[in-house]
Amino acid sequence: MSKRRKSSFFRIEYLIIGIFVLSFFIWAMIKADIGTRVKSWLSSSKSDTEQITAAPVDSLTMRLQELRPIYVIIDNLNMRSAPDLKSTILKKLPLHERIYFTGVTTDSTSQINIGRIIADEPWVKVIHEDGTEGCLYGAGVHFNKTRNPNAAFN
Fold first, then answer.
1. Which of 8, 79, 123, 153 would be a feasible disulfide site paired with 83, CB 3.0-4.6 Å?
2. C-alpha triplet 145, 146, 148: angle, nearest 5°
3. Which residues in the chain land under pLDDT 50?
4. Could you give the CA distance from residue 93 to residue 78 in angstroms, rounded to a whole number?
5. What is the dihedral of CA 81, 82, 88, 92, to 10 degrees?
6. 148 secondary structure, DSSP code
7. pTM exceeds 0.70
8. How far is residue 105's CA from residue 136's CA, in Å, rounded to a whole number?
9. Beta bridge partners of 77
């Protein structure tokens, strides 16, 4: 008889713990929702004059702030319309020009002679500070301002 009581006691104990954990999660979700409602109410309660005096931010500037800057490490690097040597040249970028990496690269690599070696890198999609979007060969850019020692015209 004592075994029967003990097993039912454990079931009740687990049930109580389960109810406590469930009520905690419900409480946390309610608190989080109330917090977001208060924040949205506070932000919408600003006067019209405060909203007018705020400096307008260009959408391009906002987009560039979200992207990681990279730098041209081969002088006169061609920004192209597509990841291909035969595509249209959009710009010639000088050494150490800052551009913004969109995070998009080609799945495959291309072998291109850059002077002293034949590089085997993917193409990367970038955005110039003036808003021009294009593709650059991966061997021509880096996250730091350096020079590619293997490029012919550095």
1. 123
2. 140
3. 1, 47-50, 52, 153-154
4. 6
5. 60
6. -
7. no
8. 10
9. 93
DSSP strands (E only) in 43-122: 68-72, 77-80, 89-93, 98-105, 110-113, 118-121
- Whether 116 and 150 have beta carbons less than 8 Å apart is answered as yes
Find, among 125, 144, 135, the residue nearest to 73 by Cα: 144
Q: Judging by beta carbons within 10 Å of its beta carbon (0-12, 13-18, 19+), is residue 123 exposed, middle or buried?
A: buried
Torsion sign over Cα 117, 118, 122, 126: positive
Tokens of 92: 């010639």
* Residue 68 phi, psi dihedral angles, 5° rounding: -90, 130
| Count of other CB atoms within 10 angstroms of residue 21 | 10
Can you say whether the dihedral through the CA atoms of 48, 52, 58, 61 is positive or negative?
A: negative
Would you say how long the chain is, in residues? Answer: 154
Q: Phi and psi of 16, rounded to 5°?
A: -65, -45
Report the mean per-residue pLDDT for the chain: 77
